[in-house]
Amino acid sequence: MTRDWSRYWHSADEPLEAMHAHFVRHVYHRHSHEGYSFGVTDEGAQAFSCRGGAHTSAAGMVMAFNPEDPHDGRAADELGFTYRMVHIGPELVTGVLADVTGGRAGLPLFREPVVDDAVLARNLRALHSALLGGASALRRDELLTATVASVVRRAAASGGRPAAAPTGAALIAERARARLHDSYLEDLTADELAAAAAHTRFGVYRAFRAVYGMAPSDYQRQLRLREARRLIALGRPLADVATHTGFADQSHLTRWFVRCYGITPARYRRAARLTEPRPRPPLDG
Question: Can you tell which superkingdom this protein's organism belongs to (predicted)?
Answer without folding.
Answer: Bacteria
